[in-house]
Amino acid sequence: MDMIKNLQGMQSKMQDMQSKLNNVTAEGESGGGMVKVVLTGQYSVTDVKIAKEVINPEDPQLLEDLVLSAFTDASNKIKAKIQEEASSIAGEMNLPPEMMGF
């Protein structure tokens, strides 16, 4: 019976975590803040800011690289938040963090 309660508790905590992640955002930046990308916990892009100083029709590769770098930065921050939340839940349930699948 304890096992069923534990599974129900874990399911409830996972649902709570999913709800939290729906509201989590992270901002990534590159070029010293010249390009910024905001992602949600579902990895949806909600905002992109590009300083006019980095828009150069003669060098589109620079802007492409800056956008990619800002996206990667935001993505890494979201991953860290997900892992932190999963580790917290795993700790509450006396499980190794790897068991949470994140």
From TrEMBL:
Binds to DNA and alters its conformation. May be involved in regulation of gene expression, nucleoid organization and DNA protection. It is found in: Cytoplasm, Nucleoid. InterPro entries: YbaB-like_sf (IPR036894), YbaB/EbfC (IPR004401). Its main location: cytoplasm. One of its GO terms (molecular function) is DNA binding. It comes from the Bacteria. This is Nucleoid-associated protein PQJ61_05190. Keywords: Cytoplasm, DNA-binding. It comes from Candidatus Thalassospirochaeta sargassi. Homodimer.
